[in-house]
Write a structure and sequence with these properties.
Helix 3 runs parallel beside helix 5. 25% of the residues lie in helices and 18% in strands. It folds into 2 domains: 142 residues, Protein tyrosine phosphatase superfamily (Protein-Tyrosine Phosphatase, Chain A); 122 residues, Metal Binding Protein, Guanine Nucleotide Exchange Factor, Chain A (Beta Complex), CATH 2.170.150. The chain contains 8 helices and 14 strands. It comes from Lindgomyces ingoldianus. This is Dual specificity protein phosphatase 12.
Length: 329
């Protein structure tokens, strides 16, 4: 294996490890003008003269957020290539962090998947293998369609929120109030098929688009993320939800768990547990924010009900309850 490996294709894009920087002759032969360093180590700045240099300080651990840096690293690589020179992307070993940044660039450049980009660079550097966390971030980046502004993408914001919840769970505490994501405050399009109403006062509490689908273990991951909203199986005693704005007063108290009450009639309608909750169907949901099936009614949206054509002259009788028949009118 060469000390500096060129990604297959027409691009002057190279990938290597830390020791590649000391091979000045190889760098000159490759006409390297830009160097992207993806690591958190003290670096001898003399190694980077006269190159244009960018450092992304990241450790090779699964919970590092490298996704937020993709727009910056992509632009740096593209600027170097547009200038006619070569670009070297390196980390410590040229295996995980550098590979992740090159994959992100190829995904955006060629509109390919993370796995396709990884297979491509392995043709030149077979040891490339992003760690599991970075690979998940690359897959999310693909699902987001490789945007230039990652941080404004709802999918990214939701991912960051879920990371915060998981970190809080590990620490045995509730997430900080300002880090809780109330999903209905970030959604413009209504894709719901039904809504959940308080059984006592009929106040709407949630719509189907905010229901967390489960049981997860019995469904393919693609179906979970892209399938239509659905209510839980009949043997589930709870509807598990994303945090919603009417829950704010309770969820921002900083308690690890508690009860949810209807904001109109103050009836107990559910409960929450940031550390997670087991549903009656045996699935463990994290975080566990739920409405009790016995305290709410599922009401289908008007748009999901097929309108019935009636003959001319007919009229729609008012709903007078099950005890009233046509003969009583």
């Amino acid at each position: 294996m060469a000390l500096i490996d060129r990604v297959p294709g027409d691009l002057k894009l190279y990938i290597g490890g830390l020791f590649t920087l000391r091979r000045r002759e190889a760098l000159q032969q490759a006409n390297i003008t830009h160097i992207l360093s993806v690591l958190r180590l003290p670096l001898d700045q003399r190694l980077f003269s006269p190159f244009k240099h960018l450092v992304v300080e990241i450790d090779d651990v699964e919970d590092e957020n490298l996704l937020e840096h993709f727009p910056t690293t992509n632009k740096f690589i593209q600027d170097g290539l547009d200038g006619g020179g070569g670009v070297l992307v390196h980390c410590a070993m040229g295996k995980s962090r550098s590979a992740t940044c090159v994959i992100a660039y190829l995904m955006q450049k060629h509109n390919i998947s993370a796995s396709e980009a990884l297979s491509h660079i392995r043709q030149a550097r077979s040891l490339c293998e992003p760690n599991g966390g970075f690979m998940q971030q690359l897959e999310l980046y693909g699902e987001m369609r490789t945007p230039d502004n990652v941080e404004e993408t709802p999918a990214y914001q939701r991912w960051v929120y879920q990371r915060e919840v998981e970190l809080s769970r590990v620490c045995g505490q509730a997430p900080e109030a300002e880090k809780i994501r109330f999903e209905d405050e970030h959604t413009d399009e209504d894709t719901s098929e039904f809504e959940l109403r308080c059984r006592k006062c009929r106040r709407p509490l949630a719509t189907s688009q905010y229901i967390i689908r489960h049981p997860i273990s019995t469904l393919p991951s693609r179906e979970i993320s892209e399938g239509p909203p659905m209510s839980p199986p009949q043997d589930c005693a709870h509807y598990f939800l994303d945090p919603l704005s009417w829950m704010r007063a309770e969820l921002e108290h900083g308690k690890l768990d508690g009860r949810l009450v209807c904001p109109k009639c103050h009836t107990n309608v559910g409960k929450y547990a940031w550390q997670g909750m087991q549903c009656s169907c045996s699935e463990w949901i994290v975080p566990g924010i739920s409405l009790s099936r016995g305290r709410v009614d599922e009401v289908r949206s008007r748009t999901s009900i097929t309108e019935i054509r009636r003959p001319p002259g007919s009229m729609l009788l008012p709903s007078l309850g099950p005890a009233v028949s046509r003969q009583n009118l």
